[in-house]
Amino acid sequence: MATESTSIIRIFDVLVVTFPSNPLDKVVDELQEELLQSMDDVQPRGVVIDIANVTTLDSFFARVIAETADMVGLMGGEAIVVGMRPSVAITASELGYEFEDIETARNTDHALSLLGVHAAHEERSDE
Amino acid sequence: MSDGSASGAMANDEGTVRIAGEDDILRARQATRDVVSDMGFDLTDVTRIVTAVSELARNVHLYAGEGEMRWRTIRDADRTGIELTFDDDGPGIPDVDAVLRGEYSTSDGMGRGVKGTKKLMDDIDIATSEDDGTTVTIRKWQR
Questions:
Q1: Were both Cys, which of A97, B9, B36, B127 would link to A62 (CB 3.0–4.6 Å)?
Q2: Is B67 exposed, middle or buried (0-12, 13-18, 19+ CB in 10 A)?
Q3: What is the pLDDT of residue A110?
């Protein structure tokens, strides 16, 4: 079974964490820990949780995402989930996952904008 | 994407995935995805079925340690479908009705997974006892 790498990248003072499509539970746990350690190191304003690769959002995975967003909040950051696929959104809604408290955005650009990261020309226009 | 075992699902219309470790949850999901995609289920139904498989395969792994998933294609007069059976020799479920209503839940939230599975599929049958373990059968028909 192919192992999939996870990634956490930094864009200005925002971390973007990309969940792989079919991770083992322990990979998800490791990614969560790695993210919180990065939070501590980088002290970002927010975290974008990108689930565009995720094709199966079961209750375990949904709980991890909700918990991760909660932990980011406890550490003083803002978490935004982006990229949920239509078929995953339909299934998640039918399952009644409790995502009410989680902020979402259409895509990473939208999330970065919500977190106050704008393209350089917009900032220059203020000068 | 197909690994061969699932190609031509109509001709080769049953199979078994042993569930003994956590990575078998992913194997069960991938085998199911291959089969029901080949059968022609639309992407939303594929996602529903694979999500249900993930819940039930995880329950086998978490609560019984090991077991198996058997799948087969089913037909009636004018439609085809998929039937998946999850069989284990674990401790059984004390109150099945409560599980299906989502009122019974262990620390890992098992009840929620089973209740959700019922919503995603057309049918769910649960046979469980302390002596014989648990057998969960789910079905989805193509519309």
A1: A97
A2: buried
A3: 94
CB contact residues (below 8 A), chain B span 93-122, against chain A: 109, 112-113, 116, 119-120
Give the span between the Cα atoms of B43 and B134, in whole angstroms: 29
Q: Give B98-101's long-range contacts (Cβ < 8 A, gap of 24+).
A: B99/B126, B100/B124, B100/B126
**Is B55 close to A24, i.e. CB distance below 8 A?**
no
Nearest C-alpha in B relative to A63? B109
What does each C-alpha distance from B126 to A22, A65, A95, B56, B84 come to in angstroms?
Answer: 27, 29, 19, 11, 12
The residue-averaged pLDDT of B54-76 equals: 94
